[in-house]
């Protein structure tokens, strides 16, 4: 049978199309499908490196794109009272003071101006030119750096990324490279340790640590790289990002690490890990005015997590729905647990209450800022859950997370340095306890009320006392045994730490 000519032409056309069809690695194609109309921009970058004949740069571009779908900027813009967008760019001014003056002038002329938060997904917004420029500059510094022994894998995670956390994206590499060239020069004549000392000292001369002094009154959780240079101030999370931008601009691998909560205090902390020419990890805490290099945690952390650019299969969010995970770092997919590098740790097994409606994941909470704060997770078993690599010297409360609320899943567990205690209250065998003052931690104020609570799925009041003049102790009668206490004065600001009192009367704070 003779085939009509037009069928032959269609067949030839389909064959030609199949020959030019773009084939990408599976993970890259999966990310590109989420790019929407921005797909063509990302493909321009891929095509550029396919034509360049540099397979390593192509591989790096694939790495960035394959993991780009989990990254985004938390930024904001200004609108007037009618919702119309008002153009304002602080980076257009020579310094932050001038930018603020211009903004205040604009506000006076535009009543009702308001900051509108916005989430900008990288996969839908990054352009080919930005991506190519980032790859070119990162490779140039890596291949010419004194740390060129750094593996391609570490290069991709800790030098190549165009962002550090969720800051607004800005063209930062060449500006940082020029301004901080002295860091590379320093490494030519001295060690990484000494260079980091110099860097910390340098930053402290021009960048102000605002922790505990002021808060940003704008919806901007993280400053962009160029905003850091313009504003010259920020909290420890900003200082940590600043160090990452500086060191990566010089071809030095560095990570951004997070302590989500202190486990025996209030607040959180951030610091860096810098990798030297021999790939040795150096813990680096730039705001520390006495010992920024070889950082040692001053107190028990809840967890210590190192941010990566790429997705990590061991994260909870890699297999569990985001809305079933408490807000915070556990909802992300790009971190690894480095707790045992910073603090003595152990796996903690917590008994769980019997329940017919158990959820598959249980969370470990530490007490911070007056509340139980979820900080890690474990897969629930029939009557227990094990949390891996948890810092010692901490009390943990196992909880479920449902409908944006935490529900106790068991009693608190003290993970001591030499023992483990499950604090299941004994309300039958009660006792009298004496609470002593402790310098810097607990000083009684005459005439003030002090309420003693113990934990039994909630904080329960067990007694109230008024401190007398000259009194250095408070005594409470009829108190349950084997419990976690919290003493709350009438002037409380929510920072009181929980504690236990052992059978011999000693008190241990957490």
Tally of helical runs: 14
How helical, in percent, are the residues? 25-40%
How would you sum up the major sheet? 6 strands, antiparallel
Mean pLDDT over all positions? 92
Please give the alpha-carbon distance between the first and last residues: 88 Å
Going by helix content, strand content and strand pairing, the class is: alpha+beta
Overall form: globular
Tell me how many strands there are. Answer: 25
Tell me the Rg in angstroms: 28 Å
Beta-strand percent range: 25-35%
Unreliable stretches (pLDDT < 50, length at least 5) are 1-20
Write up what this structure looks like.
It is a single chain. The chain is α+β, with helices and mostly antiparallel strands and 510 residues long. A hairpin with a 5-residue loop joins strand 24 and strand 25. The protein starts with a helix and ends with a strand. The N terminus is likely disordered.
